[in-house]
Specification:
Largest sheet: 9 strands, mixed
Number of helices: 30
Shape: globular
Strand order of the largest sheet: 15-14-13-12-11-10-23-24-25
Helix content: 40-55%
Strand content: 15-25%
Number of strands: 25
Radius of gyration: 31 Å
Length: 871
């Protein structure tokens, strides 16, 4: 077999993937199977049964990969740091209950941690981010006891009341696990220069679990972080609280100082021309993406060229090419040159921070140079398989990393397709007469060489796009065809930006004018890279946002692609069948038949209350496929997390829709409209509803302009307005027309919408308070079956007893974040709904809550699996 390394590598990769799905493997049975495989492999080798040997080796590596992945996941999901955190959180909750305090639903705990910085401090919009490998946690654990009828002050207390008594004990235990901490306050940026990779720090942190959104089609952010070695997140109140206990090792300190100098040099030499170009060059050269603008990142992602600045290994490839070129020019391509190249690549990888993508590219390059150093001749596919196997063996969780799949998928496609294409159209296809003509004409020969180079580049780009097409749909819910052409520009421009950017650093030490010239060249490369992404503005059809395809369709696609390649070499009928199946699977992914069904509706009314954390968003699908989105959630302005794009949009896509009919913005609070920008960009609603206008409120004005640019009608909705959608009446119950101009957004100006269909009423209440409820409750006609979105996230300022008694819903849904510090939802409010017979659902606990109705009954189901049927 020509690619013998593929046998164990494929078995290891497939086993690791299965091990993450089936984590409770029987150890005894697995070890017995491995022993049997070893015996069979020895017998097959002795008896020269090569196919049996290959099968047994693949099976053994498959099981080994599964065991490694299952063990790695258990350690990543439940490290000792998380166990200690849960102990502290339980104690804090017990003490709070004893003292009559309420804590957020999600666990939180305050502790002092010690550990080693895994990366340099990264400035963000909300503070400075620190990634820390924690090895010690100190937290106070109180002793909870009971006080009798007489309180500690001698007065009569509540009988049996729990409270904290006695001295607190100190947990000072060694732990292991990673955290990401945000240091807030003015001092954070000033002191961040001292927080470098490898240094040991101590800091007091408010710890919590990472945010997660329990919605269909939305990735589990907590699990994704755990796979990358981060168990918890936290906040530090001030940079003054971060204490540097020890410096890193001498080499790490030298690398940290070099990165700091490189940042300054790039900022001065490239940033003088454009801050945006400076940020891009810093990302390409040293892996520092902290300064990248969100808008620029989105444009490059849509264009399919973001990989060139995402430190995806392209910088390592260019550096390896430069080293080879330099040694070739010097006529020095022996063993010493190869070893020198390996040392240079390892040093550069350490310099840019040892990211996962850099590690992958460096290992590939080191394997290549190492093979040349010992004069070992092997097919590139063997090297690729070896590198993939090493990476998965050392980190089995890498198989779930989209970047891992993209890197190896693209490399595999290029190594398989490009040689075949260039050989088919290359020298073997030329006649002797043609070769003689080219030899006699240097110009013609140059044209042919350029043509072959362009053909190879196009083949590489097309092959990578074909192989990675389903991965992009699964991991990013995006397929872009722009990269097929833009890579011809993006990769050379990235090379210019990197080479000139790398030259800036040494030049800054000897010649500021020389550094400025190199910085100008790097700026031209970076600016050209961004400008090339503008193609998608003129051809938006090149970008397709879609729901992740079913696993069976992805399996069929890759199976058919493999069949096509086998047929290319051996049989035309097989090739035709493979191509037909590949095209069919690709069309399924692109068109998504579920979308065609959704557009016609299924005769039912569907209302989904989306889990957007501490915010509101409700998605309504009417019986014949019309749609209405009420609010789009949102986070604070300091957060870079776009909840519209990352949470709300996947729910809409998953329902089978690529465009919305109506979007209603109940009022302008950021937790209701923060995600609306992404929704307007992607789903291009035909009409957007606003209540009472607030002319001086910039976020709403910006949304209005964005909607109008995309052809949407912007309408103000007031009490009494109504529309009929697929036989369902949509009635505005509030607000009334304003008699004075609003200077700021008010909760009591929220749009209140009622959906009435046959016996069913669904009331969407925004953030109204008591004053509005007093007028609204008696004015809403009764209904046999009623669903209410509890006002203002279950706050005490809303849901008065009179309002709840007037509505008497069978189902009440509250949208709130599990870690919110407002105390939402308040237990007293929930009790009022339960007292009138309502079943209460909470997005922070139940996840997305979906109500389905035929107008005569209600069927409720949640992301967590809870169900209810009412007739």
């Amino acid at each position: 077999m020509r690619v013998v390394a593929a046998i164990p590598a494929v078995g290891l990769l497939a086993g690791a993937a299965v091990g993450l799905l089936v984590s409770d493997l029987s150890r005894g049975g697995s070890y017995f199977f491995l022993i049997v495989c070893a015996a069979l492999a020895w017998w097959a080798w002795r008896s020269a049964r090569s196919r049996l040997l290959a099968a047994v080796v693949a099976a053994a590596f498959f099981l080994g990969g599964a065991l490694l992945a299952a063990d790695a996941w258990q350690r990543a999901w439940r490290p000792s740091l998380r166990v200690a955190f849960e102990t502290l959180a339980r104690d804090e909750r017990a003490r709070a209950a004893a003292e009559g305090r309420r804590l957020p639903e999600d666990d939180e705990a305050f502790a002092t941690i010690e550990g080693v910085l895994r990366a340099d401090a990264a400035p963000t919009e909300s503070g400075v981010s620190l990634s820390i490998a924690v090895d010690r946690l100190d937290g106070q654990v109180g002793q909870v006891g009971q006080v009798g009828r007489d309180g500690p002050d001698g007065r009569e207390g509540r009988e049996g009341r729990d409270r904290t008594v006695g001295p607190a004990t100190l947990l000072g235990s060694p732990v292991s696990g990673g955290i990401i901490v945000t240091v807030v306050g003015r001092l954070a940026a000033e002191r961040s220069g001292a927080w470098r990779t490898g240094r040991r720090v101590r800091l007091p942190v408010q710890l919590r679990r990472p945010s997660r959104y329990l919605d269909p089609g939305v990735p589990d952010h907590e699990r994704a972080l755990a796979r990358r070695g981060t168990a918890l997140v936290g906040t530090v109140k001030s940079g003054a609280l971060v204490e540097v206990l020890a410096r890193a090792a001498a080499f790490d300190e030298a690398m940290g100082a070099a990165r700091a100098f490189a940042r300054r040099a790039i900022r001065d030499a490239v940033g003088r021309w454009s801050a945006q170009s400076g940020a891009i060059v810093a990302a390409i050269v040293i892996g520092d993406r902290a300064g990248l603008d969100e808008g620029v990142q989105r444009r490059l992602q849509e264009a399919g060229t973001y990989h060139v600045i995402a430190i995806s290994g392209g910088n390592i490839a260019i550096l390896a090419g430069l080293l080879l070129g330099a040694f070739r020019l010097a006529g020095w391509l022996g063993r010493t040159a190869m070893i020198s190249s390996i040392v240079a690549l390892l040093a550069y990888a350490r310099f840019v921070g040892d990211g996962a993508s850099v590690d992958r590219a460096t290992l590939m390059a080191v394997a290549y140079f190492g093979a040349r150093a010992v004069d070992h001749r092997s097919r590139p596919l063997n090297t690729l398989a070896l590198v993939a196997a090493i990476l998965v063996a050392t980190d089995p969780l890498a198989v779930t990393d989209a970047a891992f799949l993209l890197t190896f998928g693209a490399t595999l496609a290029i190594l398989v397709v490009v040689p075949a294409v260039t050989t088919t159209g290359g020298e073997h296809a030329q006649s002797a007469e043609t070769r003689n003509d080219l030899a006699a004409s240097p110009v013609s020969a140059s044209i042919v060489v350029i043509g072959r180079l362009l053909l190879a580049m196009f083949a590489a780009s097309a092959a990578a796009e074909a192989v990675l097409f389903p991965v992009g749909a699964l991991a990013f819910s995006r397929v872009t065809f722009a990269g097929l052409g833009l890579n011809f520009l993006a990769i050379p421009l990235m090379g210019v930006a990197q080479i000139a950017g790398m030259a800036v650093v040494p030049l800054a030490m000897v010649s500021r004018p020389g550094a400025a010239i190199a910085g100008a060249i790097a700026h031209l490369g970076a600016a050209g890279l961004v400008r090339s992404a503008d193609l998608v503005r003129f051809a938006p059809a090149l970008i397709c946002r879609l729901a992740p395809p079913p696993a069976i369709v992805v399996f069929v696609y890759y199976g058919a692609l493999t069949l096509s390649w086998i047929g290319w070499r051996r049989s035309r009928p097989i090739r035709r069948a493979g191509v037909a199946l590949t095209v069919a699977a690709a069309l399924w992914i692109l068109v998504d038949p579920r979308r065609l069904v959704a557009a016609r509706g299924d005769g039912l009314l569907h209302v989904t209350f989306i889990d957007v954390g501490q915010g509101d968003s409700s998605f309504v699908v009417f019986p014949r496929g019309s749609t209405l989105l009420v609010d789009a959630g949102g986070l604070s302005a300091a957060s870079a997390f776009d909840i519209g794009d990352r949470v709300v949009a996947p729910v809409v896509r998953g329902a089978g829709f690529r465009r919305l009919d109506h979007v209603a913005l109940t009022h302008g609070d950021p937790d209701h409209i923060g995600g609306a920008g992404a929704i307007l960009r992607e789903f291009r609603p035909r009409e957007v509803w606003e209540g009472i206008p607030v002319p001086r409120f910039e976020p709403l004005m910006a949304l209005r302009l964005a909607a109008q640019e995309r052809g949407a009608r912007w309408a103000n909705v007031y009490a009494g307005d109504r529309a009929r959608m697929d036989e369902v009446d949509v009635i505005a119950r509030h607000p009334a027309v304003a008699d004075w101009e609003r200077q700021k957004v008010r909760n009591d100006d929220s749009i209140v919408l009622e959906l009435r269909w046959r016996d069913v009423s669904v009331l969407l209440t925004g953030d109204i308070g008591r004053a509005v409820e007093r007028r609204l409750g008696p004015a809403i006609p009764p209904a046999r079956l009623r669903v209410v979105k509890i006002p203002h996230h279950g706050s005490l300022t809303s849901s008065t007893r009179e309002f709840v008694n007037a509505l008497r819903p069978q189902v009440a849904v509250v949208s709130a974040g599990g870690s919110n510090h407002f105390g939402h939802p308040v237990p007293e409010v929930l009790d009022r709904y339960r007292e009138v017979g309502a079943e209460v659902f909470r997005t922070d606990q139940d996840g997305a809550v979906t109500v389905d109705s035929d107008g005569y009954s209600l069927a409720v189901h949640t992301f967590s699996g809870r169900r209810l049927a009412i007739h």
